[in-house]
Amino acid sequence: MKKIPLGTTDITLSRMGLGTWAIGGGPAWNGDLDRQICIDTILEAHRCGINLIDTAPGYNFGNSEVIVGQALKKLPREQVVVETKCGIVWERKGSLFNKVGDRQLYKNLSPESIREEVAASLQRLGIDYIDIYMTHWQSVPPFFTPIAETVAVLNELKSEGKIRAIGAANVDADHIREYLQYGELDIIQAKYSILDRAMENELLPLCRDNGIVVQVYSPLEQGLLTGTITRDYVPGG
């Protein structure tokens, strides 16, 4: 597996990462998956040379992080790059986001919320530091937090040794410029596939010019580009 450096950090990433949204299970995925199969999938990814494991509290209300944490117990910690996120909450208020099942998710990137989130993620993952900590979705009114305040607390967490690198997901070019104004931005995460190439226009050149790693999600459009979905497929609901 080819590896690349993560910005100016001492972290090295595998070119391919393992996303664990589906592993979290829950209403978004028509129920929970077999936990042992999920753990074995993470272990097999590591055996194949994948060291980047991506998760988030918003993946079934922390369940994905718990499963990743169980797999981490079976792996050398220094051989895994753990990436998780902040900014999507359910136990405190914020700007309305998605409703999953009968539970409401909110956007909240306030310093207070981020500190509570990082503590909860560390506990669920069973680790004492997070390699890459990423804002999941950017702040919007009415519970709006300026990027300057969000970056300030992320920089504090980095100084405290709780996180090693800072990332931002679902950003536009103006977001990136503002992150860079207040600190380092090591990596972004954005949707990209041969069917959705919008980020080529501005995001990719901007990241290239500033040494920011670009991590894409849904490159296979959740199975659409794998050939497993036939022309006569009709989505449920």
From TrEMBL:
<dbReference type="InterPro" id="IPR050523">
    <property type="entry name" value="AKR_Detox_Biosynth"/>
</dbReference>
<feature type="domain" description="NADP-dependent oxidoreductase">
    <location>
        <begin position="15"/>
        <end position="233"/>
    </location>
</feature>
<protein>
    <submittedName>
        <fullName>NADH-dependent methylglyoxal reductase</fullName>
        <ecNumber>1.1.1.-</ecNumber>
    </submittedName>
</protein>
<dbReference type="InterPro" id="IPR023210">
    <property type="entry name" value="NADP_OxRdtase_dom"/>
</dbReference>
<keyword id="KW-0560">Oxidoreductase</keyword>
<dbReference type="Pfam" id="PF00248">
    <property type="entry name" value="Aldo_ket_red"/>
</dbReference>
<dbReference type="GO" id="GO:0005829">
    <property type="term" value="C:cytosol"/>
</dbReference>
<dbReference type="GO" id="GO:0016491">
    <property type="term" value="F:oxidoreductase activity"/>
</dbReference>
<dbReference type="InterPro" id="IPR036812">
    <property type="entry name" value="NAD(P)_OxRdtase_dom_sf"/>
</dbReference>
<dbReference type="InterPro" id="IPR020471">
    <property type="entry name" value="AKR"/>
</dbReference>
